[in-house]
């Protein structure tokens, strides 16, 4: 019998790809780059926001330190200011978490999202009683 289930947040518990794409594109606009489509963001994500921005800049062949220093702070500040924008739990996740709790199985989140943001998303989306 399982005693605990540990989940990733982005792309596992929470559908965040539209939010990530929105804020990524908003940040890329800082250096006049056109938006990247959501399907491409699905390939760019993974291993944190810094690498995401490097990959997005590399998508346009302009991953320089100067561009990164303009784009990354914009992405980070805008995302942190409105972290729930276009973010919602996947269908069935709430029921799954409630069922695990009913069975006495502890749940936790392990994410490469900054801890403070992951905690805020978790608190809003799932509440203290589920995670």
**End-to-end separation:** 19 Å
User: What is the C-alpha radius of gyration, as a whole number of Å?
Assistant: 16 Å
What is the beta-strand fraction?
A: 5-15%
Assembly state here? Answer: single chain
Mean pLDDT: 94
What is the count of β-strands?
4
Strand order in space, largest sheet:
1-4
Order of helices and strands: EEHHHHEHEH
Could you say which overall geometry the principal axes of the C-alpha atoms support? elongated
- Main beta sheet: 2 strands, parallel
Kindly name the structural category.
Answer: mainly alpha
Proportion in helices: 40-55%
Low-confidence stretches: none
The number of distinct helices, counting runs of at least 4 residues, comes to 6
Structural commentary:
This protein has 131 residues and is mainly alpha-helical. The protein is built from 6 helices and 4 strands, in the order E-E-H-H-H-H-E-H-E-H. The chain has helices spanning 17-28, 38-44, 49-59, 65-81, 93-102, 115-125, and strands at residues 4-7, 14-15, 88-89, 106-109. The strands form 2 sheets. Strands 1-4 form a two-stranded parallel sheet.
Task: Name its key features.
131 residues, mainly alpha, two-stranded parallel sheet, 52% helix
Offer a concise description of the structure.
With 131 residues, the chain is mostly helical.
Indicate the topology.
Elements: E1 4-7, E2 14-15, H1 17-28, H2 38-44, H3 49-59, H4 65-81, E3 88-89, H5 93-102, E4 106-109, H6 115-125
Parallel strand pairs: 1-4
Antiparallel strand pairs: 2-3
